[in-house]
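Q: Sequence in, structure out?
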Amino acid sequence: MPFTVGFDLDMTLIDSRPGIHACYVALAERTGTYIDADLAVTRLGPPLVEELVNWFPPEQVPATADLYREMYPSIAVAATPAMTGAAEAIEAVRAAGGRTMVVTAKYEPNAKLHLAHLGLEPDVVVGDLWAEQKAQALREYGAGVYVGDHVGDVRGARTADALSVAVATGPCDADELRAAGADIVLDDLTAFPAWLTAYREALGAAFRA
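A: Exactly. Output:
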């Protein structure tokens, strides 16, 4: 089996803040409910419903989440750029003979729309999993490394017994990521290809020793 590297999506591979901000503004207009979109995009990572409970009564959250997801493709996808180094990070794994996967808390159909729009082509995409739940997919596909920006991603990697590589490009700073147990903390994905090369070389040397 090829070695497999998993990536988170929001704030790891894509800068989802502009698209999500626009979608929250539109949702507020549609429902007549105040949502502080500026605040909401500072805490991306957890599932949508965990944000919606801050603005809607609990009994309205499931239907509101469905409405948000329905509105999302036409509002958020085109407004969302790739993070610097995202394409290169995926290509680095592929060039080393590995397999890539995306494991995200985002609604899976919308995650796939983002990746297709940006020309990012992981081998596997699994959505609707958060924090420790991500270990289900990481274990299923034998991922030895998981790259994410949130302490929830670190917990998912550790639960799956995968190496946790964190990038300080999301709501959690480098100190938070280290405190959560990240094995490696990078400033952003531009540092990932060089790290992967060094990591693979170290593994090869250990195997030959």
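The mean pLDDT is 96.
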